[in-house]
Write a structure and sequence with these properties.
Blueprint lengths: L1 E5 L3 H13 L1 H10 L5 H21 L1 E5 L2 E6 L5 E6 L5 E6 L1 H6 L1 E7 L11 E6 H14 L5 H11 L5 E3 L2 H10 L3 H18 L3 H20 L4 H30 L4 E5 L2 E6 L4 E7 L3 E8 L1 H6 L1 E8 L10 E9 H10 L8 E4 L11 H17 L4 H25 L1 E5 L2 E6 L4 E7 L3 E7 L2 H6 L1 E8 L6 E9 L1 H9 L3
Antiparallel strand pairs: 1-2, 2-3, 3-4, 5-6, 5-11, 6-7, 8-9, 9-10, 10-11, 12-13, 12-18, 13-14, 15-16, 16-17, 17-18, 19-20, 20-21
Helix pairs in contact: 1-3, 7-10, 13-14
Length: 488
């Protein structure tokens, strides 16, 4: 048994840093607005804040007694949770650079109980030996294979069939297929903060001086022909893309360094990370569904991200799905299904929307765009050619989006499983065992009745209230299969 234990003292540093990051904008505004006489008020506020952090740390504790983990927390309102060890479904450990220096890790434990708040049931930063002690207790009281048993059996089980590692090439492809827009927004945000911190408009003054040189350069460039201007613009955009790609590659390399996926018996283990290391394990029976995510780039290159919905899994970032493999081509995807999660292999007839229903994927988005844009064009004064250009571009984009939705929508009916695909720019394909489906419903509008098609809503088991998957304009013959399953 384990006596009363608190978070490692380093957790107070994490809590302080996290709150500073979340309040950075208010801190900057406060520093700019504060007057000389209010410095003591600021110091008093910091002291009060640190006191709350210390009290909160002392009030958050746990102990193990009679095969049950008891967790207590709260300052003014005490709460107590009891976690039966035999009910534990997932073990998740994370180690950042400070944890490595202090020989600690964060241990997350969940049981799969319905949790509307989205909080992790057990989340403590502990010494490595304390975590190993808890894992040993869990292994002795459940059928979960923990990390220490993996080390013993590693040589016996490691083989090409049940071990997959992410390569340098995979990380490069992952970086290329991901959007870079958030990097540009991040750089803009950092510039805004830098300008506020330095003060006296030094950064803005430097930009203004630099802009004068750019204006001089522009005057000379404008005398050149249009081909040179286009070349310069394209070169600049390529430079920005390469720069953002390099930044993203470094981030993804650090995040997914040495990504390893392994199956031992009915246990699945996932480990990755260079600075912040993450490791979690679960049993194959705990998987509710498998989802293959594809953005437009991944669709063109026939690549996908593989995620799974696991009973009891809850990430620190409030994600309800676990990452099974960051990026896989068609061949690797089939290998992972065949050797890691072969219970979810779905073979059967694939049903797409009938060709005569393609108009159903286009007309609705056209009408919505016209309803929104026509009043704007009426009240906003602009040249007619600009108005027609904007309208044409939007209609072209929506035509592509609607057509992609038509092509990506399908359902494959296999033995004991169904595979559902939907989405336009982002395509999602989900494999669901029949027993993991909570309910399936369908509806038909008067316009769909003429096309003899239905919309289907499929509610899948999840940690909270279920994930609703919607399929549009599919053939009526699917109803017969659904009625046989008695889940409508």
């Amino acid at each position: 048994m384990i006596p009363v234990t608190r978070n490692h003292w380093s957790e107070m540093l994490f809590m302080t840093f996290e709150n500073i990051v979340n309040s950075i904008v208010y801190i900057i505004l406060g520093l700019k607005m504060i007057k000389e006489g209010a410095v003591f008020i600021l110091l008093g506020f910091i002291l009060f804040y640190l006191t709350i952090i210390i009290i909160k740390w002392r009030c958050n504790l746990f102990y193990v007694k009679e095969n049950t983990i008891f967790v207590e927390n709260g300052i003014f309102k005490k709460t107590k949770k009891e976690i039966p060890i035999e009910k534990i479904t997932t073990l998740d450990t994370k180690t950042n650079i400070l944890n490595t220096l202090l020989n600690t890790s964060r241990l997350n434990i969940n049981t799969g109980a319905i949790n509307n708040s989205g909080d992790i049931e057990f989340s403590f930063t502990l010494k490595k030996y304390q975590i190993e002690c808890i894992k040993e207790i869990v292994s002795n009281n459940t059928n979960i294979l923990c990390k220490q048993e993996l080390i013993v059996k590693e040589e016996d089980y490691r083989s090409k069939e049940n071990l997959y590692k992410m390569t340098f090439k995979d990380i490069c492809l992952y970086t290329i297929t991901k959007s870079k827009i958030y990097v540009i927004l991040m750089v803009s945000f950092l510039y805004s903060i830098l300008d506020d911190l330095i003060g006296t408009d030094k950064v803005s003054k430097y930009i203004d001086d630099y802009s004068k040189n750019l204006e001089y350069l522009y005057e000379n460039i404008s005398k050149s022909n249009i081909a040179i201007l286009i070349f310069i613009v394209i070169s600049f955009l390529i430079f920005i893309y390469i720069l953002c790609t390099l930044i993203c590659f470094i981030y993804h390399y650090v995040k997914y360094y040495n990504f390893t996926l392994q199956r031992i018996d009915n246990n699945i283990f996932i480990d990755y990370g260079l600075i912040s290391k993450k490791s979690f394990s679960f049993k194959i029976e705990q998987i509710n569904s498998i989802t293959f995510d594809q953005n437009l780039a991944c669709q063109l290159l026939n690549l996908c991200n593989i995620n799974i919905s696991v009973i009891g899994y809850q990430d620190d970032d409030m994600a309800s799905q676990a990452l099974l493999y960051p990026l896989a081509n068609k061949a690797l995807k089939e290998e992972i299904i065949k050797h890691i999660v072969y219970e979810f292999e779905c073979c059967g007839e694939k049903i797409n929307p009938p060709k005569h229903s393609i108009s159903r994927f286009l007309i609705k988005i056209y009408l919505i765009s016209l309803i929104i844009l026509l009043p704007v064009f009426y009240y906003v004064d602009m040249y007619s050619w600009i108005m027609y250009t904007i309208l044409s571009m939007i209609l072209i984009i929506q035509t592509i989006s609607g057509y992609r939705l038509y092509k990506n929508t399908s359902i494959k009916i296999g033995k004991g499983k169904i595979e559902i695909s939907s989405g336009s720019i982002n395509k999602y394909s989900t494999i669901i065992p029949d027993e993991k489906i909570q309910s399936i419903g369908y509806k038909q509008s008067i316009f769909q009745k003429k096309k003899d098609v239905y919309d289907y809503n499929i509610d899948v088991c999840s940690n909270n209230t279920g994930d609703l998957i919607k399929l549009k304009n599919l053939d009526t013959k699917i109803i017969k299969y659904l009625e046989e399953k008695s889940v409508i």
